[in-house]
Amino acid sequence: MSNLLLIIDPQNDFSNPKGTLYVPGASEDCSRLADFINKNSSKINSIQITLDSHPSYHIAHPYFWVDENGNNPAPYTIITHQDFSKGLFKPVDISLERKVEEYLLALENRGRYNLCIWPPHCLTATWGYCVEDQVWEAAHKWELSNIGKNVDFVKKAINPLTEHYSAIQAEVPDPNDASTRINFAFIDKLKEYEHVIIAGEALSHCVANTIRDLCVYIPAYRMIVLSDCTSNVGGFEQVGNDFVNEYRAKGVQFVDSKSLILLMGEVLTCFL
After folding, report:
1. Which among 23, 63, 92, 216 has the fewest CB atoms less than 10 Å away?
2. Domain 3-56+121-265: which CATH class?
């Protein structure tokens, strides 16, 4: 049986307590994930790591917006199309007003999230962008133990005018930017493996949306989420819980990493 480990955004800004958008519990998630990789190295055939890759000036960062008084909005501010229509917020670059209005409408019509202003995070080439140490060391050790195999890194969220939680596509794809559209090459890569084991941050956002999109192309039962290797953004716990309940019912498996390790040790029974 072939097994691919998909690690969603295991970056310092999410996974280290000093990160700008630390996900409560993520440091411990990384520790358990590293242990899982180390104990099951020979049974993991591929490791794919996605990387949130933001520019500083981004539609979901405070710098992009000003309020009625000319101040940047505080992190975790929600900006709706109605707020924009009332003039409560506008982009610093007024030439983007029409595009921003179209974006807010499209985002709300999709029905997953409203626009949330996040603390600037995972800015390309910064410390916060780098993979968390425990996960990096385990992944590197996996490479050294599996000669000829390398960890693949998949960048996302490069476009400054759309959020990009999912590893598969942006929240509102830009028809003129291939990086925001459905990543069929990545999907085809995942399809090669019998099981896609998923971990990373954050369950409520990037993990959830990746799985939602993958379920269109890969049977849900082939996906196994390491439930103790992913956590919710603070304040979004219910969003994460609702996702788990919905997709467990669809067939996605949510398994404690230690339980899966035990199964893996039983002569490749069940999953691996």
Report:
1. 216
2. alpha beta
